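TL;DR need structure tokens for one chain.
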Amino acid sequence: MDSPSAGTMTAGPPDLGSPRRRRAAATALLVIVLIAALITYIRLAGPEDSAPGTAVPGATAASATSAPVVAEEQPSSQAPAAQKTRLRSPEDSAPGTAVPGATAAPATSAPVVAEEQPSSQAPAAQKTRWRPEAGLSWQWQLSVPVDQSVDAAVYDIDMFENDASVVTSLHAAGRKVICYIDVGGWEDYRPDAADFPASVKGKPIDGWPSERWLDIRQIDVLQPIMAARFDLCAQRGFDGVEPDLMDAASADTGFPLTADDQLKYNLMIADLGHERGLAVGLKNDLTQIPQLVSHFEFSVNEQCAEYSECQLLVPFIAAGKPVFHAEYDVPTTAFCQQTTRLGFSSIRKKLELGAWLETC
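>> reply
TL;DR here they are.
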């Protein structure tokens, strides 16, 4: 049969009769299927499956910080301890440190979200930290049982000796409650006394033979012990902490402590309280008040009138923060006029710190 000329050839299905043409057609079909499968895979795979810096077809661009921000806004229920946070204020931040609520670069956006929206799984961190005002009346009783009939806005009581029921009862009467914890000395009668290694125990504390000074330079050893104490304080519902013996650097401790050692340790103590939503008081340590007043919510002082040191505490009053002050041997007639004028919350106590007190 004669073949049709180029001008008269009509369109129609290709002649696949020969083996060569059948193989070519099958190969082309296989290539098309593989290409279609590859495109489908790439579209289904999200940007997270790509290596850093690799462009993914069909994906929209996202900033490098978008994933951490989502993680902070929706913290995992598997790590409640990591979700705990506290509301911070500008004075808590070191120079150059971003303050939550300020305009921040993308790298700081996740911490800001965490501060503003704490997880429902960390209730202790959700409450706004108590910020007492200057002039509040107070009662300081470290003996038990606590006499709850004293007319005072703030009670400062021993943390180990009083359980949550005492705190609850005082709260029901409209009181704020501070827990007393020793952070600068070892006490042989406390339930966690065995947690302190011999290497951190120094000379006996004058007048208290069952107590010894601590080597506050060993922060890595002392921090977890103190953290456990602060945990207990928060769990029992206290509003604040009175950390005792925060002036070891000025005492005969048996260790060559410096002012810088004391400053670092006291800042660590403040952080432990704030991380748990607690207000923290600076106990004595008058010479470092200028460096520390912005890191503490109140001051607890003994005998500033007896030693003519009350003027050193004025920075707390100037910042609107209370000075809870007590004298032992000086009668109220000899100090109340001065400390009332300064704005202190002053009382007279006996050294054993029972329920008895005299107010200004």
